[in-house]
Amino acid sequence: MAKTVNQRGRILVLLDILRHLSDEEHPLSVPALLNELERRGVQMERKSVYTALATLQEQGYDVELRRGRGYYLGEREFQLPELKLLVDAVQASKFITVQKSRQLIEKLTRQASDYQASSLQRQVYVAGKARSVNERVYYTIDSIYEAIAQDRQLSFRYFDYNLQREKVYRRDGSAYVVSPFALIRSDDNYYLVAFDEVRAGLRHYRVDKMESLEVLELPRNGHSVFAAQDPGSYVDRRFGMFQGEEEEVVLRCKNELLRVILDRFGDEASLVPDREGSFRARVKVVVSPQFFGWLFGLEGGVEVLEPEFVRYRLKLAVEQMLLTCQAPAKYEPLQPSGGENDAL
What CATH code would you report for 7-73? Predict the structure, then answer.
């Protein structure tokens, strides 16, 4: 039996039909619209359908007519390529749990027609990315944004893991109290950039290592310190987001590494030609073992020219690596076993 629905309600039902059951490749004729309305228990006259379609167009909905075939909802809040991009980003984010990822993707698919939704059930594989099992991170991020918007300080406990994968709290479990200013995503992890009044400077903290987070009533400190920073450059100068002293260094780089330097340091890198086949780059970096590891990965393509103490620290790092790589006195190379797994 047909439902008694007012005019506004009938228009909303019609809009839902167009949103889910139509697209450019699947227009719906007026008889098809009437059948679907009836299936949903809504009675409308043919003339009323035309009037409702015109009303939707007047209200800004992109209801298109493909002559000879029918009507469909064209322009949507998200176009299909945009939805695919968002779905890929959700799938590839290791900080989102599998369950939360599915929930988000399901919500995104509702923005497309039922026909398009099947193409959004995509699986993006990211090598070496273990998915989070902690849904708390999702809500921690939301609380941090809330604190920033309200100009409030945050309190939280910060931890690492031991070999037994048990939490080991820093500061003996005492709470950190900081003024949050930005969330930065680096190496597929979220980091909070905050002003630490005790250390009188900016620090960053991995969000998935924070718990017992609380938005305090205290106003934030350190506005001028953060204002002097460019958040993007803050990331570029850090390797693996490790803390350390920031220094201006001069690098001699092979010309074929120009793209590598620009990708890493962007417009902040000052570049000048050097001897044949190379150039010099003056950049700001946080000197850390991760910075040296980045240099090692370029296989001699980059040389540190100055300052001298950074060259010295790099030399010590190389010597330490050589010590750890020394072979035993009776070292015998491994011989192929001839088994099926040689390629592994």
Answer: 1.10.10.10
User: Residue 123 contacts by C-beta under 8 Å, 6 or more apart in sequence?
Assistant: 91
How far separated are the first and last CA of the chain, in Å rounded? 66
Phi, psi of 98 (to 5 degrees): -60, -45
Query: SS3 for 29?
Result: coil
> How many CB atoms neighbour CB 215 within 10 A?
16
Q: Whose CA is closest to 137, among 216, 192, 196?
A: 192
Mean pLDDT (the chain, rounded): 81
Q: How many CB atoms lie within 10 A of CB 41?
A: 12
Q: How many residues in total does the chain contain? A: 344
On the question of pLDDT at 33 being above 70, the answer is yes
Residue 332 has pLDDT above 60, yes or no: no
Instruction: Please say whether the beta carbons of 179 and 222 come within 8 A.
Output: yes
Domain 245-324 matching CATH 3.30.70.240: the answer reads: yes
The third-level CATH classification (topology) of the domain covering 138-229 is SH3 type barrels. (2.30.30)
Helices and strands (DSSP H and E) totals, the chain: 12, 12
State pLDDT tens for residues 256-276.
888 888 878 877 788 999 988
Structural domain boundaries of the chain? 7-73, 80-120, 138-229, 245-324
CB 158 within 8 A of CB 175: no
How many CA atoms lie within 13 Å of 154's alpha carbon, on the beta-carbon side? 31
280, 250 contact by CB (below 8 A):
yes
pLDDT for res 213: 94
How far apart are alpha carbons 189 and 186 in whole angstroms? 5
- State how far Cα 88 lies from the chain centre: 11
What angle do helix axes 7-21 and 30-39 make, rounded to 10 degrees?
110
